Amino acid sequence: MRRFSANYIHTVAGNPIRNGVVGVDEEGIIVEIIDHKGIEKEYAHTEFRNGIIVPGFVNAHCHTELSHLNKKVEPNTGLAGFVDQIRSHRLSGNQPNDKFIENAIIEMHRAGIVAVADICNTTESFYAKQNTRIHFINLIEVLGLEGEKALWITNKALATKLIADETLGTNNHLTPHSVYSLSSELLDMLSNEISNNYIVSIHFAESPDEEKFTVQRAGGLAENYASWGLSTQNAPNENPVAIVKKYLPRQAHTLFVHNTYLNNQQANELAQHFPNAYFVLCPASNIYIENALPDIPILTKTSVPIALGTDSLASSPTLSIFDQMQIITQHFPSIPFTEILKWGTMNGAKAIGLDDTLGTIELGKSPGLNLITPFDFSNNKPLPNSRVVKLI
Ligand SMILES: [Zn+2]
């Protein structure tokens, strides 16, 4: 057994334990949590560190497939500009590559991430995922505005899922890209396939252009489609909340990703309709693409738990959940760090259904342990120069 101690252990399941000790066995399972009420005491084989010990982080939204586009996409172009650049890279033959994906996974491992909900448009990331200890939930993403291609697109996604099931285990789910990129026919077909899904993930309210497109057929996304020569007549013509209510299963864990432009009324409507909704925030990506951040205080007033994601290296300088926490701490100083920590650990684990073993430091779980050091104990938050050290 190895024992770890620090100024505080943030179990996330309960109050922080001052000078606490956590014991883990060879498999990383927590076998001991000692709270000696703040009195320093020597325990054999204990490694004491300055800072706080927290559970491993959960990345609730990533695209490892886009890792080769690190620093290749212009920032601040808005969502339509970003989507157009990604498309151009794809058409120019700039394809995903094992080495970039492998490095991205290693980067996440070092950054203390223990589980990732990863969007997959192809099988490109599957090989790299076979050789990692990170738990991956693979979300096989479906998109396409041409109604006549809906069956072909669905079958292709099912074939990709089958390969994932055979090579990576069974935690793989079909999922829609967004409200602005699927035809009604495809949404219909997908809703049949995902009716019993445990997890659904959808990019949502990332830009004002989403609603402009679905309601008015105007804005940057509509301009993209026109310039690509793509007909939009089969796309649903309603507001984004009405579209998700119509096509997504109510009971699934539904991860609404981004929410940068979600307003109070929309947030409450989603909260009411989807009992297992999660708001997944990717602040580094939002700053990069739209130069904006979600109105997080509005989101925290709903019953919907918040989780954190990194998005991809195409729009985020790093794949670190701690970096997302730092951005939120900096921009929303009134939100307690203990709350933000919960979003990047326990809530993420719940969102992707891995909270039996991950997300909190509790006996019998194997959440991984991270040290955040140095730490500002008087204000109970990290310092700008704080970093993550993966302990196990
Ligand atoms: Zn994304």
Question: Could you please describe the fold and organization of this structure?
Answer:
It is a single chain. Helices cover 34% and strands 24% of the residues. It has 392 residues and is α/β, with parallel strands linked by helices. The protein has two domains: 2-54 and 365-390, Urease, subunit C, domain 1, CATH 2.30.40.10; 57-351, TIM Barrel, CATH 3.20.20.140. The protein starts with a strand and ends with a strand. The model has no long low-confidence stretch (mean pLDDT 95). The protein binds zinc ion. Zinc ion binds next to loops. Residues 61, 63, 119, 203, 257, 311 line the site of zinc ion.
Based on the model shown, name its key terms.
392 residues, alpha/beta, Urease, subunit C, domain 1, TIM Barrel, 2 domains, 4-stranded parallel beta sheet, 34% helix, binds zinc ion
